[in-house]
Automatic annotation (TrEMBL):
The keyword Calcium does not apply. Pfam families: BBE, FAD_binding_4. The lineage of its organism: Eukaryota, Fungi, Dikarya, Ascomycota, Pezizomycotina. Belongs to the oxygen-dependent FAD-linked oxidoreductase family. Keywords: FAD, Flavoprotein, Oxidoreductase, Signal. Residues 178-357 form the FAD-binding PCMH-type domain. This is FAD-binding PCMH-type domain-containing protein. One of its GO terms (molecular function) is oxidoreductase activity. Residues 1-23 form the signal peptide. InterPro entries: BBE, FAD-bd_PCMH, FAD-bd_PCMH-like_sf, FAD-bd_PCMH_sub2, FAD-linked_Oxidoreductase, Oxid_FAD_bind_N. Its cofactor is FAD. PANTHER family: BINDING OXIDOREDUCTASE, PUTATIVE (AFU_ORTHOLOGUE AFUA_1G17690)-RELATED, FAD-BINDING PCMH-TYPE DOMAIN-CONTAINING PROTEIN. SUPFAM superfamilies: FAD-binding/transporter-associated domain-like.
Length: 643
């Protein structure tokens, strides 16, 4: 170890790194607070990734000769969070906000991984040093492309929830502020960096957010004045064909928290297995997606993504790094598997069951009013489809379809795509026959483009479009419609009428016909029980004009949450909605997103995060906090305070 005089005048003890801890010191001493733990098989049944062997320990902390080691110390389970004034998390500008000296000390301990937030679109604003019209054009042209936001340390895909404070523009009268984006992000590549960031945020009373891709429909990965932990670069993946771990033996894949859907599917194609991940190409399959449940084109056969998880490596709110399995800690394992991201800890990797290679038939088609297709015939065609939902889901298939109003008395239906796992084209046509016969009888033209692929990747890649993100004039809501709605003829009529009412009023329906029974052999988890008997995850949205005032937007959001979605809720009041593709103002979100699991999840939240380090809007325990939003909208642009 070589002493190093830091630019701040503090004497740091440089810990020289090497993988084994005993090899010759590397040429350049590193001031980062980290030590390498030998990577043997943990109780997870698979070795740690290299990034996970680099840890913060009591030993490392005791060697840091700082006068404020306390700032980076591990937590005890007492309430050790020092909240600032009015029981709020410390905010930029507060006396208690860390000094620039402290931020640079933190950055040194992180080995330079700290990034001060510059809003993605700052290049469009002449009063920012980053002003650059060429860069602004790239950001503007690609604003709706999910890759752009996933690759940024702070940006999210739903600008409404950061406060729309720095949008791409060519209007020089607009302003750009950091708004509801986190103030700093740590670009993590080691467990030690996550531990340091957690300890620092907890000890300094800062708000903490975890950002992976920024997909979450309610902006759960952003927060004004927060320290962000950006997991995007934790990309390791390892396949174990004959894994033997707690409670399960068979093929698994271990994925780092930053792995995205297209990446795991690419590996799966190469090695000949099938993984249960999302349909969206850039969704983070080992982050918020899996922690909130995760529906998949494979769900009607294998259940939710979270049902596949057999072990996790996690950094807890107290900063400790632990392996979590059914055997090591059944309570935490249960809560992490479905209780939502950013709530109980930061997952650095998950080990998930995978399945044999399987063939898939993909079909896309559409029909619409016009010609001989009257509005009544159109709806009869849609109804004939709805009637088939139990059979189609029970056959193991998954379908993503859109129904929307396209003008006065005109409607369109788009199958985009039908994903018939383990079906040949002939088997798919047999499954569709009752519906297609009815469309024929009604005289509705439709021309399926149907192709068989011998593996999941090719089918998924051909079938699912890259979604458009980052609209600033739209919000979503959803419902998990239960099988019971199909088991009673008048309730099915009511369900159909509810959908028709919504669509006719101009709100599009983007829905999945699927089921998600708990995978056989998977221990019970905390995924929303409403998933277990659903036949349709239905999403709709509302929008407003670009010049709408905040008051108008607020009114529209409330009408949407209560009245528009209320029509759906009324058909199945006991059911729920999927937290990761949800409505931010969902009434009684505890019941809707967590169902009967809520009380236990809340108790476990108090046990594992007694100081409330982790907060996400509509997360477990979020009712104990409020964001003092600056524009009276339900966004993250304001101080986070205890209620
Ligand atoms: C275009 C698009 C397509 C989608 N497709 C699907 C789909 O097919 N199936 C489906 O089920 N959902 C889908 N979703 C919803 C998706 O599951 C959620 O947006 C989910 O929150 C994404 O997780 P993430 O980690 O990628 O995103 P983020 O927004 O970065 O994170 C979401 C939440 O998880 C937390 N989090 C992230 N990583 C970690 C971690 N390592 N440890 C602890 N907490 C963490 C964050 O703090 C945040 O609270 C889609 C969303 C979009 C926008
Ligand atoms: C460390 O202590 C010295 C002397 O008490 C003080 O001047 C300095 O500001 C402290 N540094 C930090 C980062 O708190
Ligand atoms: C506090 O933590 C210790 C050590 O992790 C644990 O044994 C104890 O049960 C915890 N106490 C509470 C009240 O959770
Ligand atoms: C981003 O924008 C540029 C033009 O400004 C374009 O050439 C490029 O293809 C875009 N990238 C994506 C991913 O859309
Ligand atoms: C984040 O860290 C990774 C290495 O883990 C590096 O490749 C990447 O360039 C960094 N990104 C930023 C924005 O600093
Ligand atoms: C409408 O129906 C008539 C009678 O069945 C048929 O001749 C005609 O081709 C149909 N038109 C279209 C556009 O399908
Ligand atoms: C696919 O279908 C066959 C019967 O046609 C069945 O034996 C097999 O188990 C199915 N595979 C999967 C993955 O469901
Ligand atoms: C359902 O609606 C259809 C069509 O409007 C109607 O004929 C049928 O009687 C209704 N069934 C019940 C049980 O209400
Ligand atoms: C928004 O612009 C439209 C015209 O494009 C106008 O009719 C409407 O009144 C404007 N609304 C507000 C709130 O300014």
């Amino acid at each position: 170890m070589a002493p190093l005089l830091s630019s701040t005048g503090l004497l740091l003890t440089a810990l020289t790194l090497s993988a084994s801890c005993q090899a010759a010191p590397s040429a350049t001493p590193v001031a980062a607070a980290v030590t390498a733990i030998p990577s043997s098989k943990t109780s997870a049944g698979a070795p740690l990734f290299h990034s996970e062997t680099l840890q913060l320990t009591d030993g490392v902390l005791s060697k840091l000769q700082l006068n404020n080691t306390r700032l980076f110390a591990f937590g005890n389970n007492a309430s050790d969070l020092s909240l600032g004034k009015d029981s709020c998390k410390v905010f930029p500008g507060d006396a208690a906000w860390p000094s620039s000296t402290t931020w640079s000390l933190f950055d040194r301990l992180l080995d330079g991984a700290l990034i001060k937030t510059v809003p993605l679109a700052a290049s469009c604003y002449s009063d920012w040093p980053q002003y650059d019209s060429d860069k602004c054009k790239v950001v503007s042209d690609n604003w709706t492309v999910s890759y752009l936001h996933a690759a940024d340390p702070a940006s999210i895909m739903w600008p409404l929830y950061e406060g729309r404070t720095c949008l791409p523009t060519d209007d020089s009268s607009e302003t750009c502020t950091v708004g509801g984006y986190s103030s700093y992000a740590v670009n993590v590549s080691t467990v030690a960096q996550i531990q340091l960031a957690i300890n620092f945020a907890r000890n300094a009373g800062l708000r903490l957010v975890v950002k992976n891709t920024g997909h979450d429909f309610n902006g759960k990965s952003t927060g004004a004045g927060a320290l962000g932990i950006w997991t995007h670069h934790l990309k390791d993946m390892e396949y174990y064909e004959d894994y033997q771990g707690p409670g399960y033996r068979g093929p698994v894949v271990k994925m780092g928290a930053g792995v995205q859907a297209s990446e795991i599917y690419t590996l799966a194609k190469k090695l000949g297995f099938t993984a249960v991940g999302g349909e969206g190409k850039t969704v983070g399959v080992a982050g918020g997606y899996v922690l909130g449940g995760g529906h998949s084109p494979m769900s009607s056969i294998y259940g939710l993504a979270v049902d596949q998880v057999v072990a996790m490596e996690v950094v807890l709110a107290n900063g400790r790094f632990v392996t979590v399995t059914e055997e090591s800690d059944a309570d935490l394992f249960w809560a992490l598997r479905g209780g939502g991201g950013g709530t109980y800890g930061i997952v650095t990797s998950v080990i998930s069951r995978v399945h044999p290679k399987v063939g898939v038939t993909v079909s896309t088609f559409n029909f619409a009013t016009g010609g001989n297709v009257t509005v009544d015939k159109f709806w009869a065609g849609v109804r004939a489809y709805l009637d088939r939902f139990p059979d189609n889901a029970d056959a193991g298939t998954y379908a993503y379809f859109w129904v929307m109003s396209t003008g006065a008395n005109s409607f369109s239906f788009l199958m985009n795509p039908y994903f018939a796992v383990n079906h040949t084209v002939a088997q798919f046509n047999t499954l569709m026959k009752p519906w297609f016969d009815e469309l024929d009888r009604l005289g509705i033209p439709y021309t399926p483009k149907t192709t068989y692929y011998d593996n999941y990747y090719d089918a998924w890649d051909a079938g699912f479009p890259l979604e458009t993100v980052a609209s600033t004039v739209m919000a979503t809501g959803s419902r998990l419609f239960p099988r019971a709605n199909w088991e009673d003829a008048s309730l099915l009529n009511q369900t159909f009428d509810a959908l028709k009412t919504t669509i006719t009023a101009g709100h599009p329906l983007l829905a999945f016909n699927m089921k998600a029974d708990l995978l056989e052999g998977s221990p019970e988890n905390s995924a929303n029980p409403a998933f277990r008997n659903t036949l349709m995850h239905a999403i709709t949205s509302t929008s407003w004009s670009a010049n709408a005032t905040n008051t108008q937007i607020r009114d529209e959001l409330e009408t949407f949450a209560n009245d528009v979605l209320g029509v759906w809720r009324k058909t199945c009041p006991e059911a729920g909605a999927y937290m990761s593709e949800a409505n931010i103002l969902e009434p009684d979100f505890q019941q809707a997103f967590y169902g009967s699991n809520y009380d236990r999840l809340y108790k476990l939240k108090q046990r594992y995060d007694p100081t409330g380090l982790f907060y996400t809007p509509t997360g477990v325990g979020s009712e104990d906090w409020t964001v003092k939003s600056q524009d009276n909208l339900p966004d993250q642009n304001g101080r986070l305070c205890r209620v």
